[in-house]
Design brief:
The structure holds two protein chains of two kinds. Chain A is built from 23 helices and 16 strands. Chain A is α+β, with helices and mostly antiparallel strands. In chain A, strands 2-1-6-3-4-5 form a six-stranded mixed beta sheet, with helices on both faces. A six-stranded mixed beta sheet of chain A has the order 8-7-12-9-10-11, with helices on both faces. Chain A has a two-stranded antiparallel ribbon with strand order 13-14. Helix content of chain A is 38%, strand content 14%. In chain B, 8% of the residues lie in helices and 24% in strands. Chain B is built from one helix and five strands; from the N terminus they run ββαβββ. Chain B has a five-stranded mixed beta sheet, with no helix packed on it. By secondary structure, chain B is mainly β. Classes of the chains: A alpha+beta, B mainly beta. At the A-B interface, helix 7, helix 8, helix 10 and helix 18 of A face strand 4 of B.
Chain lengths: 586, 88
């Protein structure tokens, strides 16, 4: 296994043996460790000293189910913290198959506005990856839906990672996009502006051709197979993850109705926990709408090879042709409920434009909602929202303001209700109605991030326990435990977070630990996982502290403490001491 | 007494019994159903009244708050019933 270092200053590279200290890491554990060890915490995120790190999970590239994920890490231009954002596609297993444990992009282009692509393929004679730099200027400034087919035509069956116009323009809202299994530019490591970090280095694409690559080494095949079987059985049995279960049928947007029912679906820029139009945009409505337009039931597809949950939907136009894949819960909410828009065709177009321009759907939606509050459009005006999205995609002065995210827009436009923590906007769960997720938003090393410690499972969904969402009691412990477990069990192993929906089946967790031990030859037990996750969190926290963040940054925005949220009319009442205890007692 | 009921996930298609006669267009996820129940009925009584398959039923809310099946309903309560759901 290698660490591949790419220097964008002189377009050179080094293929290094994986140092001993990194051998047992992968995914977020590895990206965060490399950033902690090598990136100066006070560096400018878009300057030459930041590094962009890509690391497949420990089991990514093996036959482990639902595990084809890549962690992308750097110091974030949106949050000024350490950042890890992960995505599933065919790209991560391709990198892993070439035995690259991490790809570290360093330095910076010398010529402003110049873009390159990196091409990696397997050199069978040498028995190692072949690295080439090619000019990419001809693809700059274009819609990714137009660019990807050109690359497939030029390179054949490859996997593409890229930035769009947003990343080229160094927007703080810019993701790293990966091609899905049908070649769409739709699978995003979206959060935290990592596209801008890639853009600042002058890197437009990373194209992988895995042909003849040897694949991932497995230390103990029998144990690994036992583990993947346990996990596969759990995922095929659990109601949420099984074939034709909730995710496969309705997609992630199945959460719209339940969050609305619980009074925790943020609407009209976090001014209510209920949205009247919720049933019109929910996962059930997507399923029924497709059925009407296609004349048959359509179940969802996999975003990445080897996924057995298969939760990615495709929304169709009235004439039955494809509009966009995928309308995820977060995108549906951010560009729908949070902007007061209850028209799936408008939401689908907004999602498509985010994919085309290289924007994170969550940050884009919350920014448009802030713009609506500032009077640039009425809540519910989908047409105007689409126009604002085009401003971002065209790089007009207004678009460049909006492209720098929710908090930047709120500052420029004079909006007090800016729903961000550490500069990153909140996703689709209202902290005043679901207290534990607010603790995760406040304290996560990543800024407001639901995936960092998904307490929604016990607070709303009755998975891994059941607690009262409105009560702050005991939630610091819940958030801490979820944050630590997540850092390793999904984000470092390379499994999708959604394996957590099968966690009430005991073999699920055991299966993952067996898989990891099988690949690495380790002897971890189920009890070791929280400890391994906590070590990763400590490194991230240490980086953030050295970057100047203190406990005052672990707070929700002030308006949530004095504005009562309908329908439960709650404010955010988790005491600061409880927030401080999350990492204080880690 | 009357309560307002909404069914979500797979449950909207699972309703059977006389109530269907009142909804000739069919029942969709989130459709508002006005259900007449005897006083002091519980959530479990409501589930039985709608002939919902209990094995598909996971979460119940009354007036936006999670409640268990032994919860005693009051006139005008707003009930939401869900099959297992998850996402992110």
């Amino acid at each position: 296994m290698w660490i591949l270092r790419i220097n964008m200053t002189d377009r050179s590279y080094q293929l290094e043996d994986v140092p001993k200290a990194y051998k047992l890491l992968g995914g977020r554990g590895l990206t965060s460790t490399i950033i902690h060890d090598e990136v100066p915490p006070l560096c400018h995120p878009l300057g030459p000293n930041n590094k962009l790190v890509f690391a497949p999970g420990i089991v990514t590239g093996t036959a482990a189910p639902t595990s084809a994920r890549i962690s992308v890490g750097a110091k974030s231009p949106l949050t000024n913290t350490i950042k890890e954002s992960n995505a599933g596609s065919g790209w991560p297993p391709a990198l892993a198959a070439m035995r690259i444990k991490a790809l570290v992009v360093e330095g910076q282009r010398e010529q402003k506005g110049k873009f390159w692509m990196l091409s990696l393929s397997w050199d069978q004679t040498e028995g190692k990856p072949k690295v080439e730099f090619l000019p990419a200027d001809e693809y700059v400034g274009q819609d990714l839906y137009e660019v990807y087919p050109k690359l497939f035509e030029r390179f054949g069956k490859v996997n593409i990672g890229s930035i769009g116009f947003a990343g080229e323009s160094l927007y703080s809202n810019s993701g790293v996009a990966f091609a899905d299994l049908a070649g769409r530019p739709s699978r995003y490591a979206g959060r935290g502006g990592l596209g801008a970090v890639m853009g600042s280095k002058g890197l437009k694409f990373i194209v992988l051709d895995r042909k003849s690559a040897p694949g991932v080494e497995i230390a103990d095949k029998a144990l690994f197979d036992e583990g993947r079987k346990k996990l596969t059985d759990a995922l095929r049995t659990a109601d949420i993850t099984k074939p034709k279960g909730a995710l496969n049928t309705y997609g992630t947007a199945v959460l719209i109705n339940i969050m609305n029912e619980a009074g925790g679906l943020p609407a009209n820029n976090f001014s209510s926990g209920r949205f009247e139009g919720a049933p019109n945009i929910a996962g059930e409505a997507i399923f029924e709408g497709n059925k009407e337009r296609l004349g048959k039931e359509l179940y969802n597809h996999a975003c990445s090879p080897g996924c057995i949950i298969q939760c990615s939907n495709t929304w169709h136009k009235p004439d039955g042709t494809e509009h966009v894949s995928c309308v995820e819960y977060e995108s549906d909410w951010a560009l729908g409920a949070n902007c007061g828009i209850d028209d799936l065709d408008k939401i689908a177009e907004l999602v498509r434009l985010c994919n085309a321009y290289g924007l994170d759907t969550i940050e884009a939606g919350t920014t448009i909602a802030v713009a609506m509050e500032a009077g640039l459009a009425e809540f519910g005006d989908g047409k105007k929202a689409i126009e604002l999205m085009h401003e971002m995609g065209k790089g007009t002065p207004l678009g460049r303001i909006l492209g720098n995210g929710t908090d930047a827009a709120a500052h420029v436009l004079g909006v007090v209700r800016s729903p961000v923590v550490k500069g990153q906007s909140m996703p689709a769960y209202e902290p005043r109605a679901v207290k534990g997720i607010g603790i995760t938003y406040a304290t996560s090393t990543m800024g407001a991030d639901h995936t960092a410690g998904y307490t929604i499972n016990p607070e709303i969904l009755g998975v891994s326990g059941k607690t009262d969402p409105l009560s702050p009691e005991g939630k610091a412990e819940v958030s801490r435990a979820f944050q630590a477990a997540t850092a390793f069990i999904t984000d470092t192993t390379g499994h999708c977070l959604f394996i957590a929906f099968a966690m009430d089946i005991e073999s699920c967790f055991e299966g993952i630990v067996d898989e990891v031990n099988g690949v690495l030859g380790t002897h971890y037990t189920v009890d070791d996982i929280a400890k391994l996750g906590a070590e990763i969190l400590r490194k991230e926290r240490a980086f953030n502290e050295a970057a100047g963040l203190t406990k005052v940054h672990d707070r929700l925005p002030e308006f949530m403490k004095y504005e009562k949220l309908p329908p439960h009319n709650n404010v955010y009442d988790v005491p600061d001491e409880a927030l401080d205890a999350v990492y204080g007692e880690l | 007494m009357k309560v307002d009921v909404k069914l979500f996930g797979t449950l909207a298609q699972s309703v059977s019994g006389p109530i269907l006669a009142h909804y000739p267009q069919g029942i969709r996820a989130g459709s508002l159903l006005e259900v007449e129940l005897p006083e002091d009925s519980t959530l479990a009584d409501l589930v039985a009244h709608l002939s919902l398959p209990t094995e598909e039923l996971k979460l119940t809310f009354v007036n936006g708050r999670p409640q268990e099946l032994d919860y005693r309903l009051a006139p005008g309560d707003e009930v939401g019933i869900f099959s297992p759901v998850g996402g992110g």
